[in-house]
Write a structure and sequence with these properties.
With about 325 residues, the protein is of the alpha+beta class. The chain folds into 3 domains: about 90 residues, no CATH class; about 110 residues, Endonuclease I-creI (Roll); about 100 residues, Endonuclease I-creI (Roll). The chain contains 15 helices and 14 strands. Strands 6-7-10-8-9 form a 5-stranded mixed sheet. Strands 11-12-14-13 form a 4-stranded antiparallel sheet. The chain has a 3-stranded antiparallel sheet with strand order 3-2-4. The two termini are about 40 Å apart.
């Protein structure tokens, strides 16, 4: 399955694009040819401030994508031709000097779905509650998980700039050598690694930060499509669950053996439940009695081997080791716990 990123962003009013100069001149020439002037064209079709339109066809480097597509449609220019002439993207109000280069197509494979679900599980948008989402951020304490997410970004959005915040709990000092080790393990430039203090953390966490409103808009716009695709493909369904389990799951091996995923997002947990059922698991979502509004899905000992073979905890080494130990436990006859 291939997703068209340009099409996904085409109705976003905050998206501006840089287009080929010859293509811009072609559009202007067609307007003059068919309507004699930009002013007449604007009066008939767009009805915006004429100075704005005039500036766009004289000196503006960026053009609102929805309006550009509307103009192209009026002039009977195929949408595909518009997309082929896009050189980069910029968000309204952005202070960036450079444009964002996005791949035209995204291949929705198991790796993409796993990383996407991992972001849904452990990511955030930097949203304060008063403004629109403007960032893509992903936080985790496991470097292996962070490394996977960075590789995911580099694979599917290769021109995206990001940096890493190492978040230190109160009273803990992080030595300078630690930054060199982190940058080496994650294959980052040392200038991409920054120290941040946070009062609510009890252990060191790592946060991948991408200050791109366009990228987060794109990621959020794909959610419904991705979920629909996963529900019709068992391999992608397993990849989605794996990403979620890496971000929000837990493995237990003590007196009993099981894996569990918990979250307060009722809609998301019920979607995950449907994927589990699609893959043949016997389970159900339930509200935890001792944790307010906390939903849970429990996969017990009888299904652990199936979970290990089909899903697992992937790059989360700590949980994966617990799962392996639980699966490999030698049982007595008729023992499942």
């Amino acid at each position: 399955m291939i997703l068209d990123t340009f099409k996904s962003l085409s109705k976003n009013s905050s998206i501006y694009v840089n287009i080929d100069l010859f293509f811009r001149q072609k559009i202007k020439s067609l307007i003059i040819k068919n309507y004699k002037s930009l002013r007449r064209f604007n009066h008939r079709w767009l009805k915006i401030n004429y100075s704005t339109l005039s500036w766009e066809f004289r000196k503006a480097q960026y053009h609102p994508l929805p309006r550009l597509l509307k103009i192209a449609e009026i002039l009977k220019i195929d949408k595909e031709e518009v997309f082929e002439n896009i050189r980069g993207f910029r968000a309204s109000g952005s202070h960036r000097k450079s444009v964002l280069i996005l791949p035209r197509e995204i291949k929705v494979n198991e790796n993409f779905v796993e990383g996407y679900a991992l972001y849904i599980a452990g990511g955030d948008t930097g949203l304060s509650g008063e403004t629109r989402p403007r960032k893509l951020r992903f936080t985790n304490s496991e470097l292996g998980v962070i490394k996977f997410f960075i590789q995911w970004l580099n694979t599917h959005f290769p021109s995206t700039n990001f940096y890493l915040n190492v978040i230190s709990p109160p009273g803990m000092t992080i030595q300078g050598d630690s930054f060199n080790q982190i940058s080496k393990e994650l294959d980052l430039n040392i200038n991409q690694v920054k120290l941040r203090n946070d009062y609510y953390n009890k252990k060191i966490k790592h946060r991948v930060c991408c200050d791109s409103a366009i990228l987060i808009d794109l990621i959020l716009s794909l959610e419904r499509t991705i979920k629909k695709i996963c529900f019709n493909d068992k391999k992608l369904a397993a990849a989605y669950i794996k990403g979620m389990m890496i971000g929000e799951g837990t493995a237990y091996f003590n007196r009993s053996r099981y894996v569990r995923i918990e979250m307060r997002n009722e809609k998301e947990i019920k979607y995950i439940y449907k994927l589990f059922r699609l893959l043949g698991y016997s389970c159900k979502p339930s509200l935890r009695s001792n944790r307010e509004n906390m939903w849970s899905i429990y996969i017990g000992a009888k299904q652990l081997k199936k979970f290990y073979d089909e899903i697992s905890f992937g790059v989360h080494q700590e949980r994966q080791k617990i799962l392996e130990a639980a699966v490999n436990k030698k049982l007595r006859v008729n023992q499942y716990v």
